[in-house]
Specification:
Residues 1-29 are annotated as: Disordered. This protein has no helices and five strands. The chain is mainly β. The chain has one domain (4-71). Strands 2-1-5-4-3 form a five-stranded mixed beta sheet, with no helix packed on it. The mean pLDDT is 90.
């Protein structure tokens, strides 16, 4: 388990897709970020949750903050 007290936090911006322009902070430069959006079910279904899943991959050409994560249209 990682110790998050020593994590290196940096600013990041999401490019493309449904979260285009969203700014966030990331610890230790993860390769992939996952963004979810709730999708309420029609009719009975209180016992389940449905979410749309979007994947953003870190642009390896970005070394300085804000890090850039681009929408991966082919994932998941």
């Amino acid at each position: 388990m990682e110790n998050h007290d020593t994590a290196r936090w940096e600013s990041a911006v999401l490019d493309g897709g449904p979260a285009h322009g969203l700014r966030t902070r990331v610890a230790d430069r993860p390769h992939v970020l996952q963004v979810t959006r709730p999708c309420p079910p029609d009719g009975p279904g209180d016992e389940v949750r449905v979410s749309a899943l979007y994947v953003y991959r870190r642009d390896p050409r970005t070394d300085d903050a804000p890090l850039r994560y681009t929408f991966d249209v082919a994932s998941p």
